[in-house]
């Protein structure tokens, strides 16, 4: 029995999510990628509740939002549904020359679990150090440097930070991990640490799409990782064009799984992406963010998303090695592949692995 899985489930922003992620795919075409349209929406929602006039209208059209009360309720619900193994943070830096409204500070804390900080942009070294420490603390030391310089003419920067390090429901046995080769292209191969497991998973080969798909569950929160594997090392671009229409089986089958260990950290400046979706006034002197500050000439200079993921053998339950005479599907992720991390409600992360890195 098969069911259709749409990579972008939230119909209200389906178009934005698809375009947003395809832009990320293309802009990081030759490098590893992790990104989250879900988290970017939350960050933009945080700005929307403080926007008015044309600025609010652009955000409203791009995100298909309604009124502020509905938005606050929506994002509070999303925060409550967010798995605790996924950590998301919004940090709005505001130039000290602007006075942030107390009502907005309370709204951001209550509905978005966000933090607003007024800083002296003239002291670039102190601001940069403060930002990098904040990010480092919230990514448990994995992202040590997000910014190298913050100029004195900056009005405001919104930082959207994500951290994920899940535990598998079925643990890979570290003693089986071995060095193998990952074929980046027909002419380039690199050594990787390849994890090995034999077990029952939801998995299927779709010949008409030229892909294999497997679902790997994490230990808690109903989270799973879906891995989309093309048939050749140069098939990732075509795969990512098809991915939102991929079908998955509900039935499990025996799989010989080989998956490389990898860590990915991706920093993306979102201003140029958001401009393409009609969000332009937010970044101009004409911005109307009077719900955030008392001054009328405040605008956002950029929205920066930094996401981190680590995939290794870690887990609690030991995976049973399933025997029997039934043939097993071979799923060897030794060429560039795409992945999604999601639960039954939301898609939290998407990306691809071009060249697995362990020490980054």
Output the keywords.
360 residues, alpha+beta, Antithrombin, Chain I, domain 2, Alpha-1-antitrypsin, domain 1, 9-stranded mixed sheet
Verbal overview:
25% of the residues lie in helices and 32% in strands. With 360 residues, the chain is of the alpha+beta class. It folds into 2 domains: 18-166 and 264-310, Antithrombin, Chain I, domain 2; 174-261 and 313-345, Roll (Alpha-1-antitrypsin, domain 1). Helix 2 packs antiparallel against helix 3 and helix 4 crosses helix 5. The longest helix is centred in the middle third of the chain and has 15 residues, at 124-138. The chain is elongated and about 70 Å long. Mean pLDDT is 83; it is low at 1-13 and 316-324.
Structure summarized in a few sentences:
By secondary structure, the chain is an alpha+beta fold. The chain has 8 helices and 16 strands.
Mean pLDDT across all amino acids: 83
End-to-end distance: 41 Å
Number of strands: 16
Query: What would CATH call the class of the largest domain?
Result: Alpha Beta
Order of helices and strands: EHEHHHEHEHEEEEEHEEEHEEEE
Total helical segments? 8
CATH topology of the largest domain: Antithrombin, Chain I, domain 2
- Whole-number count of domains: 2
Q: Biggest sheet, in brief?
A: 9 strands, mixed
Overall outline: elongated
Query: In percent, how helical is the residue content?
Result: 25-40%
CA radius of gyration is 22 Å
Low-confidence stretches: 1-13, 316-324
Level-2 CATH architecture of the largest domain? 2-Layer Sandwich
Please identify which CATH superfamily of the largest domain we are dealing with.
Antithrombin, subunit I, domain 2
By secondary-structure content and strand pairing, the structural class works out as: alpha+beta
What's the quaternary structure here? single chain
In percent terms, what proportion of residues is strand? 25-35%
